[in-house]
Each structure stands twice: as structure tokens, then as C-alpha cells.
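Review form for a predicted model. The reviewer records the input and the model, then writes brief findings.
Reviewer: anonymous (R2)
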Amino acid sequence: MNQIRIPRLSDMKLVAVDLTSGYMGIDSKHQLFRVLPRAISDKMERSVYNRRKRKLFYFGEQLRKCPAGKVSADKGYVIVDGMPLEVCKLSTQ
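Model under review:
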């Protein structure tokens, strides 16, 4: 028997937490739940978060693709995603 409960954290808030954690570079759910405000982290368990996040993956992807769809190469705009990489370092001898 499946028990259907009303989630304490809305789908929109869950997708917002997921997108924000990606923006902040947090890839560990353990780390995410340490830095989340208690007002949010107390509303769900990690396993519930992971399960709902997988079910809402499509909506998060649509939100990510929306700004990219408004920018086209024909207009001379490009989007570059990356992280800073240290290629040289000053040293003192």
C-alpha cells in the first residue's frame, strides 16, 4: 500500500534548493544539509529530498535551458560555463 502524504516543502522550493546548491558548487547531499537553514532542512529527510529531486529533474532542466534558449550564436552571444583554473603561480625564492 502506498501512503500519499502532502510534502512539507513545495516542489518549487525543492527545485530552487537543487539549482542553488548546484550554483554554489555543493555536490554532496551531506554538505548541502549542513549548510541549509534549519527552516528548510527540518522539512524533509535526505532520502525524501533525493527521491523527489529525481522526480523533478525535468523541471530543473527546463529552468536551466530557458535562459540559454534566448541567447543564440547568430546574435554574437555565447554562454561559457566553467571554473577558474590556476595555470601558473608566483613563487618566492
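Findings: The two ends are 71 Å apart (CA to CA).
Further findings: Residues 11-75 form one domain.
Recommendation: see findings above.
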